[in-house]
Specification:
Layout: E1 4-9, H1 20-28, E2 31-35, H2 36-40, E3 50-54, H3 59-71, E4 75-80, H4 89-99, E5 108-111, H5 117-125, E6 126-127, E7 133-137, H6 145-157, E8 161-165, H7 175-184, E9 192-197, E10 205-210, E11 223-227, E12 233-235, E13 238-240
Parallel strand pairs: 1-4, 1-5, 2-3, 2-4, 6-13, 7-8
Antiparallel strand pairs: 8-11, 9-10, 9-11, 12-13
């Protein structure tokens, strides 16, 4: 097959946080496939470059369309925000490959890493991810809420710093409150909590609080939530988690 497919992440928002490798992949592509708002972040390319925008809830359809284009000889870039491998399009592409046309397994498929939201959010406040951490999506579109609760409980018991993706939407505004109720039953009230909205953009805003005082109703889908570990601490205006469980350097 003469076509190819690369899955890229545009980073959290600022153009300078898009990697040079991603910029080069976008410049080479004959076709860009992605969620409309993510495609809008990309400056106009060559006159012959085509854009295929779709809704946010059709990831597998989008992946199949991209694979069909690549199998037809096109140089395709599938566009995600952040990092394409973190709750994003890279997994959808490989899921479509697994279930689809066996010929797709012979395609030239690559993934270019990007700056994911939790890294941009952490950089706004210091180094809250300096120790062991995990990332959990609160969206129950593709997994059950019972699974999410089980993973939250396990992460809290293990004393990970927890980054919450997709914390609230218009369809499920209550789940972030339920998540905080569960975490409050397992972690100390003075545990640092960070609400970072629009991390990595010029509109970034940080609310630093504690688990006991946090108001999860302020959260929306552009907010990345970080719940600290028992060792996470504040130094001046910075929040960090020491690498040592004893709290030393």
């Amino acid at each position: 097959m003469t076509g190819s497919l690369v899955v890229v992440g545009t980073g959290p928002g600022k153009a300078e946080l898009m990697t040079p490798a991603t910029q080069a992949a976008l410049a080479r592509a004959t076709d860009l496939v992605g969620y409309g708002p993510y495609l809008d972040r990309i400056p106009a390319g060559r006159a012959d470059q085509r854009r295929h925008a779709s809704d946010n809830r059709v990831e597998l359809d989008r992946a199949r369309h991209a694979l069909e284009l690549a199998a037809s000889g096109h140089q395709v870039a599938v566009v995600s925000g952040g990092d394409p491998g973190v709750f994003a399009m890279a997994a959808a592409v490989f899921e479509a490959v697994e279930a689809g046309d066996p010929a797709w397994r012979s395609l030239d498929i690559r993934v270019e890493p990007g700056v994911t939201a939790m890294l941009a959010a952490a950089a706004e406040v210091g180094a809250p991810l300096g120790g062991d951490f995990c990332a959990i999506s609160l969206s129950d579109n593709l997994k059950s809420w019972a699974t999410i609760e089980r993973r939250l409980a396990a992460a809290a018991e293990a004393d990970f710093v927890i980054a919450l993706y997709n914390p609230a939407s218009k369809a499920r505004p209550h789940q972030i409150g339920q998540a905080f109720d569960l975490l409050r039953a397992k972690k100390r009230g003075e545990t640092p909590v960070l609400f970072v909205r629009a991390a990595g953009t010029a509109e970034a805003r940080v609310v630093s609080t504690t688990l006991g005082e946090a108001d999860p109703s302020i959260v929306d889908m552009r907010t990345l939530v970080i719940i600290g570990a028992s060792t996470t601490r504040q130094v001046g205006r910075w929040i960090y988690t020491p690498r040592s469980e004893r709290g030393g350097a």
